[in-house]
Fold these 2 entries.
Entry 1:
Amino acid sequence: MAPARLGELAELPGILSATPALRPFTGGAVASGGAASSARAGGPLAAAPRPSGEACGPIPIEADGPLHSAEARERFGVDGTGVTVGVISDSFGANALPTSWEADVAAGVLPGAGNPCGRTIPVEVISDMRTGSDEGRAMAQLVHGIAPGARILFADAGASEFEMAEHIGQLAAAGADIIVDDISWNSETTFQQGFIATAIEQVKASGVAYFTSAGNGTALGTRGASADRPISSWRTTAYRAAACPDWLLTGPRDPLANLGSYDCLDFDPDPAIETPFDTLQTGGAVGDGADAVSVVGSIAEPMFGITTSYEWRFYAVDPVTDEPKLLAIAPQIGEFFPGSIGRVSVPSGSEIRMVMVRTAFDPAAPSPAVQLQFMRGGEAFVERAHLGDGVNDVVGATTFGHAGDGSALSVAALDWRNPTVLRDYSSLGSTTLYYAPVDLTGPNPAQPLAAPITPQTPNIASVDGTQTSFFDDTGDPEYRFFGTSAAAPNAAAVAALAKSYAPGLSGGDLTAGIVNTARGPAAGGPVNPYTAFGIPDSSVFGAGIVDASALLESLTALPGTPQGFRASEVTADSFVLSWDTASDAKQLQLEATPVAVVVADAPGRPCRERLGPQRPPSRQSSRVMRPRTS
């Protein structure tokens, strides 16, 4: 049934609640952990040898140039061997045309038995719904291209964000060191970390590095003050009540007609002016057809603690009568959810009016922040009336859910041919969190944070538009994969090279290293096209473009940890400590709890340490020493 009629269903006897079955969006475009000193324990894992004379894959790895990943493989002798990368997307083996999973292996673009490059460890599928576009298979191809030695796992996004959260845990349990997804569920919370974010935080705590696509929600205006400006979202820090427009109701049978009271959101930040709707203009000429727009909205109230009821309404102004006519309603997802979803078909060459109607609220509760964005189809709009004041009202931010709440490393998209150029669909940040994460133990509303937190997203940028064997046919002779769905696995593959070089590197240190070594504008990285609108670099591409060579170079400053520590000649007040030589360490510092610190003159040379009589040493007490190399 139509989502707008879920309220009627919920009123039927015996129905406790009615919530729509949702489908996820992928990020494909349409045409701190452990100590650094232990990071390289055991040394780099050498790249697996390639069979000489054999052609190893029909597709050039076009991300290698802008991401400096070919240089990194050559300089540091790694290819991802020893690292496991988990991929989450819509499907993996659902389609056989234009290529199948088996054909991809035979061609060398995926690992498995019969791979001509000797990469015989097959992709391990944890879960595959067997329906979808096989975007996950395309993502795996990109990972394999940059890090061909890495083991790859795949899991689909499941049937809900709850099931996707389970799959995240399953990938980690199966050995994933790095996980990358390109999924956005429109039920994900905007102003609070939700179920997926909580699952991500849990696997991060176990050492996993987590990447996600930032999204493809940005659309630019082309007329007036909206020209070249991101206009596909609108947000305010607090709901402002205004009298609703007199054309709001469609007639006596309109559901709102039976309500005792309701009000509408004031889109004008000037307290002296009330404007209970926003006005948007669609491109093209009247009669040219219509465009489908996917709408996602939210209020800043916690899951399971909703006190505000509302809906979004969309009207088209009749060009003849000048009367607004209702096009669609985007209702709340359910009584426990802060979000709303909908789909509206907007006619070309038309004036569209957007109204938020509040039908119930708690007068004692603070007025919540409000967001509405166009997840897909925002390019249908060429101009909007309310562009915000940049303080309380902000236009253009479209990262949300786990791509915007700071749980995952969120990846923006750049043009692989010229990585200084941002893709105009790449989602912008940032969002603000008002509540603690969703409580997984039961339907309990989370408490407000002591102060709102604004995670800066996207965190980094990578490239898209690179080749695969089958995905995203644009009419070119080759298949090119566009969108942040492609940028994210390219970045994750770079992380696999670093993890292969420094196997002991924690997920937290790995992601921090990627951010810290990214190339920003001053180093020849991406250029911010939105500075004139006050949008900072941190909300556009984060720290900059991923740089594999710089990342691995930074890890050479982390010498290997000495191994084979042994105590001998133990007496009541002393012992001799020895260790195996660490060839890449110039000196070794030892810390003994509670009173002694000794620096050896040379690696591998035994030292005698005398401890105070207040604590006689033993073999057990010697293990509290923490070696740190420099």
Entry 2:
Amino acid sequence: MIEELSFLERIQEAYLEDATWAPETVTVNNQPVSELSRSEFESLVEQIDSRPRWFRNFQLAIPASSPYETETQVLTLQNGVSFEQGGVTEMLSENDEDSADRAGRISNHFSDGEHREGVELIFEALGISDIDELELSITVNKSHIVEDFCGENSVGISDADVQMWTSKETLGKWIGRSSVEHIIDRQFNDSTTPYHYFLENEGVEESRFLGFVSAHSLENGRTDFLPVSCQEDYRREQEILSSVFEGTKFSSPPVSPLVFDNAVIREVYQSVFIFAATACLASDYSLSGDSFEAETKTDRHHTRSEFDFNESSDVSFDDHPLNDLYGLLEQVLHDDGPSSLNHWHQAVATHCSSFTEISLKRREIVHYCGFLQEEAAKQELEQLQNTVEEAFELTRTVANSLSEASQSLTSDLQKVIITLLAAIVTNFVLILRYSDLHVLAPFSVSAIAAVLIFYFPIIQNEIDETQSVMKNRTGDFIIYLSEIRSHVGSRVFDLEKIEDQHKVHLSTAFNSLQNARQTTSRIYLLLVFIWVIIIFYGFIIVADSTFVGLQNWLSGLGLQTSTDQGQGVIKITILVSTVPAIWLLYKLISYHRASEAQFLSCSMSIGESSNDPEINFPQIEDESTSMDEIDIDFFENATPRHYFEYCPPLLAVLFISIIVIAGAAIYVN
């Protein structure tokens, strides 16, 4: 296929200065056809007729003799090459009596596809006419040529903007006639990646970003830099540029200067490269057409330049300064982030009064930037030392807070448990062994009901508040540690030890919290169970001879099974017990309706425990974290969350038993 494109090389040789070269088209307007040899023009006509989609316009015309007349067409483009017979007839009308016959023979040649013979007769007619020259106008559709070339050679394009150029000179012609702003908008926008291949490979050096390969290499598969791979590398380099400028007050240029990765490309795209390189080292810049202004300020220094890319004296560099500038930009854009970019700006402002001096003072700039980075590193280490000390202090504070909360909760629970158990068990033993039930039963039932209704909600609230304190302290720790990591920790210091230490404290606090919840729940269940025993025991006494076998067995154990006095008090106690029992049953059912806890899916085993819980510690990100972003839910794994969630079916059965016993007591004499 490359041989078919040789007509473009001939157009370049004949009309390099007069043609308009663009990424999508090549346009020649009203130029003398004599710039092409007769054989070259004949080959061009044949090519147009065989590949008409490669051309948007073609016209061979007799120029107008005056501004008030129009040109006369001889050949045009109409699904191939079309001969306009009237043009030749007019051309020969005054010099050849047989002009109509000659025009007819030319038309027959073109109709039969004999384009060379037809062109020969046109030039013969031109030789015997009074017309000095015919004018050629042609527009080549390079976009269609690229489609056919890549399709026939199985070259993947993807989103790349593949462009065919005859040589780097024609690319240079387009760049020279276009403003820098237009070149950037056309070639280096966000949606496409420019990829160049050339019919002439002289002076062309391949690039992993922009292609710059020869058509022969692309056709024969002798290049590693294909459109898709170049597109990936180009976008990756653009992402690096964006990451360097992210989080700074500086504006990144629309194209990374590092995509101009060899001397040939920097020479061809010199104005764009200088703009992009200067913009990376400027605190502020503006571009309008070919006018470019850039400046960098510090407290004591100021660098400023104004470029007019139309004036070659403003931006003329040879290879060596451009290579030095590129080497400097490799260090700037592939360093470690925003703080480094600020150091480069300071170094440029300190050593250069104009941006044109950068390549000449590269060594001084690099040295001074290194000095600034060393000073910044020293300050960062000092800050790190203070920060780490604060982090350890925070860890100790949080640990003490968690420990105090856990110890306080445990101590309070122990006092309550010991007091309640001692009083109730002692009272129960006295009732069963020595005292009359009618005296102590009302007191015991009243005490148990009062504790269950009034005191246990207080204990539950204290446990919930302790959990809230643990959660808030953990949130404070995560926020502070994330701030450290976002500034210095992730780059200089490994904070995993502090995080691991905090996990140990959290595990201890979690175990204390879970132990408090389980102990409270078990005591609650035990008190309800003792309540049921007292009510049932009182019912046996009130029932008198109803349960003879059971009464005899209890008497054999030395327990009181009957009484001559106080049966009414015992019966009233049993009946009154239904009031707190119904209330607590209602609270149990209401809790499960209002909460996410499922009645039958809660803890069913009295012995259920989790001595070694798995804690999913919240992930501390490298970036700064706000309180709204923290989701500390592992404390919710301390179960049961409420004493109503501990064996709820058994609790319901015990409360219902009290109510049933009271109902049965009504019918006992």
